[in-house]
Design a protein that fits this description.
By secondary structure, the chain is mainly β. 5% of the residues lie in helices and 28% in strands. The chain has 2 helices and 6 strands, in the order αβββαβββ. It has helices at 35-39, 118-121; strands spanning 68-82, 98-104, 109-115, 127-138, 141-145, 151-155. Strands 1-2-3-5-4 form a 5-stranded mixed beta barrel. The radius of gyration is 29 Å and the shape is elongated. The N and C termini lie far apart (96 Å).
Length: 181
């Protein structure tokens, strides 16, 4: 004998709601409603796009240790590939290609550390724009680098005579702790 229980005739039906849907959350910490927002809810809000700032190009001789966010136009003078140590990278990770390039302008020159795809862009004789470049310290001397937040753009050749006798990477810096009394 087949029993006719409530499970046999059960159907999945969406639950009916009475009234408007609940308000949607705006992320983890929504901003508190301000008085100006409450009064202007009837008016459509205009979203004005933020204007981008023009990049301020600096010269190589203005670079200082520990600084970042530099935009500069330099010419590549020389490129030397840095050999990888055999046991440095693990076997499942693609080995990083690193190259040290001497770059500069008419004021000074500095060593630039190119990594992976950057190595192909930094050929001797090319002129490049470095955006959001930073100064890394390596064994007490400055190195210019562009990380994932920066950009390297190859530009049309510019007639720059690089001042190679003012190499900022040859200046050795020492970290000094200043004690205030």
């Amino acid at each position: 004998m087949a029993s006719n229980t409530s499970n046999d005739n059960f159907q999945h039906r969406p639950r009916q709601r009475n009234g408007p849907p609940p308000p949607r959350r705006q992320g983890r910490n929504p901003p508190p409603p301000s008085s100006s927002t409450r009064t202007s809810q009837n008016q459509p809000q205009q979203h004005t796009p933020q204007e981008k700032k023009k990049p301020v190009f600096v010269k190589v001789d203005q670079l200082k240790p520990g600084t970042s966010g530099h935009t500069l136009t330099v010419k590549v003078v020389d490129q030397n590939s840095v050999p990888q140590k055999p046991g440095a990278a693990s076997s499942h990770i693609r080995p990083a290609r690193i190259s040290e390039c001497l770059v500069g302008d008419e004021t000074a020159c500095i060593l630039f550390t190119a990594r992976n795809d950057q190595v192909d862009l930094m050929r001797p004789g090319t002129t490049v724009n470095l955006r959001n470049a930073k100064i890394d310290m390596f064994k007490g001397s400055m190195r210019l680098a562009v990380d994932k937040w920066g950009r390297i753009e190859v530009t049309e050749p510019v007639d720059i005579t690089v001042k190679e006798d003012n190499n900022l990477s040859l200046v050795e810096y020492e970290l000094v702790n200043v004690v205030e009394e």
